[in-house]
Design brief:
It is a single chain. This protein has 294 residues and is of the alpha/beta class. The chain has a single domain, classed as P-loop containing nucleotide triphosphate hydrolases (Rossmann fold). It has 9 helices and 6 strands. The structure holds guanosine-5'-triphosphate and magnesium ion. The site of magnesium ion (MG) has 6 residues, from helix 3.
């Protein structure tokens, strides 16, 4: 075993993140998180069956892997509902909404192609803004050169309240936290302007922390004690202007044969947070919409 790993070099004595007052890496913690998640459903006044959550990020950063991991948690075993792979180009090319089989029946997660970095990000950003407002239909193929026009068949001219996005997950490969491409930072900031104007909450997820830290690769329990991960969170927070507590490090299940409650905990923490903010947002948004109608 690596001596640094053995001696715990690079780990803080006290965790840099304490997700809950009495947080412990125990099976009961995972079960409690799962129970809390089950209880967070849309309120009656919103008329919603499900919360809609959009994943945004660069290609290959782990958007589809994250969605597959949530699906796995939902059914209690490793499964896959969207394609994830390392191919050097965008694997996901269409805008698709995924309902989860199993327990997570209150969420629809939307997957899209990664933000282009070598091209003008404007058309992509315009499309994201339209998705946030519910104007783009499931199955739309992203064209990085141009945004959708209101004439196209995949354009929804009068979206319902339930078509809008209630929370955005910005997915970032933690090993790139120190060199986020300028086009990505620019694109995310433009998308966040629209989110702020619609009051849509954002959560950032740092994937591949097992690649950033040998401690996490050895045991996921090191995730909230590893200095490198803490620094990655701080770096992303500074560059994207997202508060550090809203940035969640994880390891997706994509490269694992199976998972246990232990590996689930960081992902369950993300799920609980995104459901809480989506619930809060949808409740406020319906009040605003109803006031406008009166
Ligand atoms: N080691 C490790 N690999 C991961 C993790 N998450 C994703 N990967 C790998 O990263 C690669 C890309 O993941 P995807 O989920 O396809 O990325 P994406 O953001 O959906 O990419 P596009 O669809 O092309 O935009 C895959 O080979 C995954 O196995 C993780 O937490 N740890
Ligand atoms: Mg993908």
């Amino acid at each position: 075993m690596d001596l640094g790993l053995y001696l715990g070099i690079g780990l803080t004595w006290n965790p840099w993140r304490v997700p809950d007052e009495n947080f412990k890496w125990k099976k009961e913690t995972a079960e409690k998180l799962q129970k809390d998640i089950d209880d967070i459903k849309p309120t009656k006044e919103t008329g919603l069956d499900k919360f809609r959550v959009l994943t945004v990020g660069l290609y290959g950063h782990g958007k589809s892997s994250l969605i597959n991991s949530f699906a796995s948690i939902s059914v209690g075993e490793k499964t896959s509902i969207c394609n994830a792979a390392s191919m050097g180009t965008n694997v996901t090319t269409h805008y698709r909404n995924f309902d989860f089989p199993g327990q997570l029946e209150q969420i629809v997660l939307s997957d899209i192609s990664g933000l282009p970095v070598k091209k003008d990000v404007h058309p992509y950003v315009e499309n994201i803004k339209l998705i946030l407002q519910g104007h783009i239909k499931h199955g739309y193929m992203f064209n990085p050169e141009k945004s959708i026009s209101s004439e196209e068949k995949d354009y929804e001219s009068s979206p319902k309240f339930s078509d809008r996005i209630h929370c955005v997950l910005i997915v970032i490969d933690s090993t790139m936290a120190y060199e986020l491409p300028a086009a990505f930072v620019y694109g995310v900031k433009r998308i966040m302007e629209t989110m702020h104007s619609m009051n849509i909450p954002v959560i950032a997820v740092l994937t591949k922390t097992d690649k950033l830290s040998p401690h996490v690769k050895y045991s996921v329990e090191s995730i909230f004690r590893c200095r490198k991960i803490q620094q990655a969170v701080q770096n992303v927070s500074k560059q994207l202007e997202i508060p550090a507590p809203k940035i969640y490090p994880v390891v997706t299940f994509e490269e694992m044969d199976h998972f246990t409650w232990r590996e689930s905990i960081p992902l369950l923490i993300v799920l609980k947070s995104l459901l809480l903010v989506a619930k809060m947002h949808s409740r406020n948004a319906i009040e605003v919409a109803q006031k406008k109608d009166n």
